[in-house]
Specification:
By secondary structure, this protein is an alpha/beta fold. It has one domain: Purple Acid Phosphatase, chain A, domain 2 (4-Layer Sandwich), CATH 3.60.21. Helices cover 23% and strands 20% of the residues. The radius of gyration is 15 Å and the shape is globular. 35% of the residues are buried. The mean pLDDT is 94.
């Protein structure tokens, strides 16, 4: 199964205040995000992280502290604060899943590849502050109750039956 998420901002104390997150400490936030993630993502699943995963520049520390505890396989896209990723890290990910073309980027696009043909555009960065747009979804944790979003959930969301 595929999962999508963004804007965890692990180890970023000020994001609690900036986004009015319901956590008292960065440790509580990090622990909750890991717990929520592992509650739904299983070891065989694949998660696309659409940027701003961690507010840290130490690659080994990020892997040990934040990536390793998470279930599944991970694809990381570069966001605004991903100094731990190499500069060559991808900014856009595309794939056809069950016949549905999906494009993922940290930043929302007004038009995107195959947008005239029903493709989906998944993004982060806005922390739930953008108005909904057809065939787009903010997969950031702030907009999705601090959980990743599954492809199965997105099928319902894109039909307009959820959220």
């Amino acid at each position: 199964m595929y999962w999508f998420t963004a804007d965890q901002h692990f180890n970023h104390k000020n994001i609690i205040k900036y986004c009015n997150r319901p956590f008292k400490t960065v440790e509580e936030m990090d622990e909750t995000l890991i717990t929520n993630f592992n509650e739904v993502v299983k070891p065989g699943d694949v998660t696309i992280h659409a940027g701003d995963f961690c507010f840290d520049s130490r690659k080994e520390g990020v892997y040990r502290t934040y990536v390793k505890p998470l279930n599944g396989t991970h694809i990381f896209l570069r966001g605004s604060h991903d100094r731990w990723l190499p500069k060559s890290a991808k900014r856009v990910w595309t794939k056809t899943i069950e016949g549905q073309y999906v494009i993922v980027c940290h930043y929302a696009m007004r038009v995107w590849e195959k947008s005239n043909y029903g493709s989906w555009m998944l993004y982060g960065h806005s922390h739930g502050r953008l108005e909904p747009y057809p065939n787009q979804w903010d997969v950031g944790v702030d907009y999705n109750n601090y959980y990743p979003v599954s492809f199965e959930q997105l099928k319902e969301i894109m039909k307009g039956e959820a959220k």
